[in-house]
Amino acid sequence: MNQVQYDEVRQHVRNRYKQIVVESKPSTSCCTPAAASSSCCGTANEVSAKLGYSNDELTAVPDGSNLGLGCGNPQAIASIELGEAVLDLGSGAGFDCFLASKQVGERGKVYGVDMTPEMVSLARKNASTNGYMNVEFRLGEIEHLPLGDHSIDAIISNCVINLSPDKQQVFNEAYRVLKLGGRLAISDVVTTAALPNEVKDNPDSLARCISGASTVDEIRAMLQSSGFTEISVEAKDESRMFIKDWIPGTNLEDYIQSAVIKAYKAPRI
């Protein structure tokens, strides 16, 4: 892809997530609009419960911050500690940021970066209304993070990096902003078989967390190229149970799975 094509992809994705905010459809997850309207995915909390979030987590965040957009629970693998600086790539309405806020405490800081202005505005409103003083939302692309070098302890993300047309640059930027010994702990989708052409070539399929997925080997290679060590990319077979609902009748679960992706910026401290 050239830069013009990259920008076209980003704009298509941005428009889709703008629509989610404008139309206030928090149960869409990565489903098609038709599927969402038929309630195949359930409410945002029902969707997130399937992804591994506890009831305590689902009830601890501001109303309207959980849009049901994800494919896992990065909170469960990030081992966030008091006083840390945490970054959420593609923070949406702030769901994972608000959960991380409670884990880092008053001495910590959580940053959310999202390229959709409407999402950032909604997240900021959620933070302001509910008194989250240690959370900051910034408008920006995850390929060009608006953060300084060596400023972050942990990076989380939930089904977002697959949306990027330049994933290598995303991992390069993640490596840049992490402190030495910092870690990447994300949930994302991976391909387990070649996607059908009618799915792979559909721009709407990309915007719904499907055709932009990479293989496990591709993700591992990109992380290594960025400089990460102790890399782990583990596909979760049980994720087929909720992925089959994303586009009912397409057997999508035969082609993609959710994965837990972890890596460190050496040396570990």
Describe this structure in words.
There is one protein chain. With 269 residues, this protein is an alpha/beta fold. 37% of the residues lie in helices and 21% in strands. Strands 1, 2, 3, 4, 5, 6, 7 and 8 form an eight-stranded mixed sheet that branches. Helix 8 links the parallel strand 4 and strand 5. It is globular.
**Number of extended strands:** 8
Estimated share of beta-strand residues = 15-25%
N-to-C CA distance:
38 Å
What characteristic shape results from the CA principal axes? globular
Outline the biggest β-sheet.
8 strands, mixed
Helical proportion?
Answer: 25-40%
Assembly form of the protein: single chain
Structural class: alpha/beta
Question: What ranges have pLDDT less than 50 throughout 5 or more consecutive residues?
Answer: 26-40
